[in-house]
């Protein structure tokens, strides 16, 4: 009897502690894969589970990635890249095929918990010059129709993650918000469609970019500490730009006649390198404020209550375009190899602890490619550095970044090493006209990490594939005997 009671107590305690991890736990993350050496999907899924992350958003529907989420119960938003919008807008048959191959295949008992299909990614960004204006809405309608027809419509909703630049407020007061004038009619049709299909409005909000794009932006207004003058709007007080931006959308929806449309924040986060305001200290400050806010379920002045949010992002991505800025490759809460950068408490309790890093990561050997110190005449070095950086990632050398204070030798060595690691430590990639040399002593300097690359997912795959072929050959060999 006493044992049974104890057992019950133990079970409840366990359930209770599980709730602490998952309770406030509607934290989602974006899992982007624009990396030269992506981590194997099963390792990334392990990280999500270890850190109590219950939702994930991906940018395509890569079958290997999506399959790795089977049986986890993690809610998944799969994506359709912008370059597929035209085909899907033009052909309902292709949409049916897309749903069959990328959704239906994963829906079975113990399969993948797909909740949303993201049709395009920020397709109405002004920098796209209207390229996707004609195709996004037809593709959205086709995909939802195909989901409905396949019997998934009640569980899985099609939506379009949009940048916050689809709405604006000329005065910066949320109450003056409305959809951007050049796309207003289109936006009105789309939000009506979301409403009719019970799909959410997915919006990406970046306080970091408010600060980056405007030197006069009040610094503390980008964070959640309340350390700047509040903005007053029709009796409501705003002490951070996230709330003000979110409520600008709420006002735009009100004016569109759909005041209660569900909103999901598809991306929000802070980069850790590549800019004077992109560093781990400010990222930690931002996430600490954001996660505490989310755990409080306070919502925004106009929309009190629980917010649904996907953080951007899980991992650094060294192949992202740096057109928007050098910080683009440093949005990861974790580094390229899945190791944590700074303390973060996903439950919003504000505990200063490191999150749990990726387990079972395989690294290449501990060797670095650096400038050969015996080289006296360095006049030929700069073109080699340009070459190395054009084919790898030297964004950490930029102004305000972690490697910005290196001396000349450090700069050159950093560039040589990044190229060498990018090329999977191929010895031919550590030559540079005889000016480079391999060393086994850690070349990192202070805060500047000279990384060692990992054995990437794709190489593991080709290794496994080669092994399978080898096994196959062996089997045929024995069969011949
Ligand atoms: C399924 O998704 C993958 C990855 O995004 C894509 O390459 C493929 O074309 C899609 N399948 C179909 C039938 O459209
Ligand atoms: C948009 O137009 C600008 C200026 O004409 C051009 O530089 C840019 O490449 C265009 N972008 C796209 C995605 O077409
Ligand atoms: C979209 O359609 C309009 C009107 O039919 C046309 O003028 C425009 O060129 C189209 N845009 C693109 C990117 O195809
Ligand atoms: C360094 O090398 C360059 C090109 O190889 C040559 O033109 C230059 O004269 C050399 N400088 C010295 C000081 O030797
Ligand atoms: C090192 O490189 C950075 C970025 O390219 C540059 O700003 C800096 O002046 C360089 N330092 C030296 C000593 O060459
Ligand atoms: C090299 O040193 C840096 C900084 O001390 C450290 O973070 C990194 O883990 C080291 N790398 C290896 C492969 O030991």
UniProtKB/TrEMBL annotation:
Residues 1-23 form the signal peptide. It catalyses: Hydrolysis of (1->3)-beta-D-glucosidic linkages in (1->3)-beta-D-glucans. One of its GO terms (cellular component) is side of membrane. One of its GO terms (molecular function) is glucan endo-1,3-beta-D-glucosidase activity. Gene3D superfamilies: 1.20.58.1040, Glycosidases (3.20.20.80). It is an enzyme of class 3 (hydrolase). Residues 367-450 form the X8 domain. It comes from the Eukaryota. SMART domains: X8. It is a lipid-anchor; GPI-anchor. Its EC number is 3.2.1.39. InterPro entries: GH (IPR017853), Glyco_hydro_17 (IPR000490), Glyco_hydro_17_plant (IPR044965), X8 (IPR012946). Its main location: membrane. One of its GO terms (biological process) is defense response. The keyword Chaperone does not apply. SUPFAM superfamilies: (Trans)glycosidases. It is found in: Cell membrane. Keywords: Cell membrane, Disulfide bond, Glycoprotein, Glycosidase, GPI-anchor, Hydrolase, Lipoprotein, Membrane, Plant defense, Signal, Transmembrane, Transmembrane helix. The keyword Cell membrane applies. Belongs to the glycosyl hydrolase 17 family. This is glucan endo-1,3-beta-D-glucosidase. It comes from Cephalotus follicularis.
